[in-house]
Amino acid sequence: MDIIIEGIKQAFILIFTLDPEVMGITWLSLKISGTATIISMVLGVSTGTAVALTRFPGRRIVISLINTGMGLPPVVVGLFVTVFLWRNGPLGFLEILYTPASIILAQAVIATPIVMGISLAAMQNLPPGLRLQILALGATRIQMVWMLIKEARLPLLSAIMAGFGGVISEVGASIMVGGNIKGYTRVLTTATVMETGKGNFDIAMALGIILLVLAFIINSILTYVQQRERPR
């Protein structure tokens, strides 16, 4: 209990004194996870919508792969991204291993199937005849897809929140591809693991609390937007 109280106290001290290192780590965490979430939103919503609205051979297999991807272990993602970005790997020429870009890539790989799977389910849950009604009113196929996305905007926002939650709290892949380099690739989760390993439980607790507060603020904003759009 004393560790928790000391951690809360330390968290407030670090926040209100605007500790440069902690603020830098917090900003980097937000920038990396935010960018990865935006990438996953674009790829996940578009692909999930395309799979939901089209019929093609092997569609059920593709849906099964998407659903399986929603549970991808972060360490496995970190392993494969590291291998691909290694100097002798297929993408080694990019030379982005142990940089923030590599963490963004790994987190995007983790979040995209999550957003894709929820988007797919959201589009499939729309009334079956809605597409025909929209087309019957003279809309083009692009307009029809856009109207369907607007109709499913509430669960799609949930997909984005789930994707963000999956990456802001991720640690395994971030350490493997980023290296936890101070002032460069160290984010809140990896810093918490490091401080815990060093026995600095108060600082680790403080970083954990800051991470929770950050996740709460971002999800509160998204929830506000979602609930404001809710039909009355």
Overview of the structural elements:
The chain has 232 residues and is mainly α. The protein has one domain (2-228): MetI-like (MetI-like fold), CATH 1.10.3720. 76% of the residues lie in helices and 0% in strands. It has eleven helices and no strands.
Kindly report the average pLDDT value: 88
Q: Helicity, in percent?
A: over 70%
Q: Give the helix/strand class.
A: mainly alpha
Largest sheet: none
Q: Assign the CATH class.
A: Mainly Alpha
SSE order in H/E notation? HHHHHHHHHHH
Fold-level CATH name:
MetI-like fold
Say how many strands there are.
Answer: 0
Terminal Cα span: 45 Å
Domain module count: 1
CATH architecture: Orthogonal Bundle
Q: Which value, in Å, is the CA radius of gyration?
A: 20 Å
Strand content: under 5%
Topology:
Blueprint: H1 2-16, H2 20-53, H3 59-69, H4 74-85, H5 100-124, H6 130-136, H7 141-151, H8 153-168, H9 172-178, H10 188-197, H11 201-228
Question: Descriptors for this entry?
Answer:
232 residues, mainly alpha, MetI-like fold, 0% strand
